[in-house]
UniProtKB/TrEMBL annotation:
Pfam families: PAP2 (PF01569). Belongs to the PA-phosphatase related phosphoesterase family. Residues 1-25, 335-420 are annotated as: Disordered. This is Phosphatidic acid phosphatase type 2/haloperoxidase domain-containing protein. It comes from Staphylotrichum longicolle. Signal peptide: none annotated. The keyword Transport does not apply. It is a multi-pass membrane protein. Residues 130-286 form the Phosphatidic acid phosphatase type 2/haloperoxidase domain. Keywords: Membrane, Transmembrane, Transmembrane helix.
Length: 420
């Protein structure tokens, strides 16, 4: 069964491409030079946009705070502030914004780079790194715009503000919003005595959490990438330690976001908003760079700008490769030309077994189907038992007579790659 987003098969037998046939002549340096030039031609617009987006995020964050917010100030008989939600002490941040940005990019890129020792795919590494940067920078731009236009008080705001409500009656009330509301307890930053305008602005831009946004934008992207490369949720039962490894990015993002409640740098709702923004952006960007998100047949395949990936016919040269796990046919190099009749994850691949994961992806869970266009069905392959409609039960594939073996009990079993 085809993925729900690509159910209708294409009429043409193969993927559409706009790239020219690669030139193989020349020295290694010349071939490398041509490859680098072609990569720049394909990617320069995205890289330029990425740089512009990053610069825009920094520039917007430096602009003056746009909103005018009120905060409550009331005192008891001793002169103490009664409303404590903004009266926490300013303890400094456990993780600074710059360090957070470094951790959210360097660690995932390092993991992706180490994995390439086994995956050995330039386009996978290219899509993974650029996708991670897209996710982090796009999420940062999104949250910075909200910070500047909406914002919110940090729990330690009054510690930074050092308010003096007497200023409201001595000419510091240009907005007319000081000493207003119920019992006239609401004031603005016009009554703050701290001369550091940068610190005041930072104390008023708590919503949403930038730490949470970048952490989840980076580590959720890494989570999706690791799931695709490890095939944790696939057509076989993955090892427990892969599941544990897959949870590591989620744990890292959660710790990085939640630690800001310890030093009272953020309110809980600031963090929740950042989590939602980062997660949504990560999912969007991953699907931009890879053929699927959850569909285990395709989610490891990096997409190309100048080549259409055909979900109906598949691409046998990448369906089995570009993954980290090496198990039950996954992660094995394609041998013996185009294969059909079986698929990835259905036993040990053999030379000349005519088993292609593209056919498996096309058929869903069965390996018995029409061979790729231009190929002839092997002798004896069409003779299959009838089950009411002349087709095998769903999920069952019958072996070829020439490859079946007798088990001594009157039953025949085919090779592993022909059985589901």
């Amino acid at each position: 069964m085809l993925p729900f987003h690509r159910r209708e098969a294409r009429a043409e037998p193969g993927p559409v491409t706009t790239e020219k046939a690669p030139r193989t002549e020349g020295t290694k340096f010349q071939r490398l030079k041509r490859f680098v030039i072609s990569w720049i031609v394909l990617s320069w617009k995205d890289i330029l946009t990425l740089a512009i987006t990053g610069i825009a995020s920094l520039a917007i964050y430096q602009t003056p705070y746009a909103a005018t917010r009120n905060f409550p100030i009331t005192f008891d008989a001793s002169g103490d502030i009664v409303y404590p939600q903004f009266a926490y002490p300013s303890r400094g941040w456990i993780i600074s914004p710059s360090l957070s940005g470094v951790l959210d990019t360097v660690i995932p890129i390092g993991i992706m780079a180490l994995a390439q020792i086994r995956i050995r795919s330039f386009w996978d590494f290219n899509n993974a790194v650029l996708g991670l940067l897209y996710s982090v920078i796009l999420g940062s731009l999104f949250q910075v715009i909200i910070k500047q236009l909406i914002g919110g008080f940090r729990p330690y705001f009054l510690e930074i503000c050092q308010p003096d409500i007497s200023l409201a009656s001595s000419g510091h009330n240009t907005t007319g919003l000081n000493g207003v509301g119920f019992h006239q307890i609401m004031y603005t930053v016009e009554v703050c005595t701290n001369p550091d305008k940068g610190a005041l602005k930072n104390a008023m831009t708590s919503f949403p959490s930038g730490h949470a946004t970048t952490a989840f934008a980076g580590y959720i992207f890494l989570f999706l990438w690791m799931n695709a490369k490890l095939k944790v949720w696939s057509n076989f039962q993955a090892s427990y330690y892969w599941v544990a490894a897959l949870l590591a990015p989620l744990l890292g993002a959660t710790l990085m976001a939640a630690c800001l409640t310890i030093d009272q740098a953020h309110n809980w709702y600031d963090i929740c908003a950042g989590v939602v923004i980062g997660t949504v952006v990560a999912f969007m960007v991953y699907r931009l760079n890879y053929a699927a998100i959850w569909d285990w047949r395709y989610n490891h395949i990096p997409l190309r700008k100048n080549r259409v990936f055909d979900y109906a016919f598949g691409a046998p040269e990448v369906m089995e490769r570009a993954v980290f796990v090496k198990k039950l046919g996954w992660g094995k190099k394609r041998r013996g030309g185009r294969r059909w009749g079986g698929g990835v994850g259905k036993g040990k691949a053999r030379v000349g077994s005519n088993a292609s994961s593209a056919t498996y992806a096309r058929n869903g869970s069965t390996s018995m189907d029409v061979p790729p266009q231009g190929q002839v069905m092997p002798q004896g392959h069409g003779a299959m038992p009838h089950h009411g409609h002349g087709m095998p039960p769903q999920g069952v594939a019958y072996p070829e007579p020439t490859t079946a073996r007798h088990n001594g009990g009157g039953q025949y079993y085919g090779r592993g790659e022909n059985m589901v």
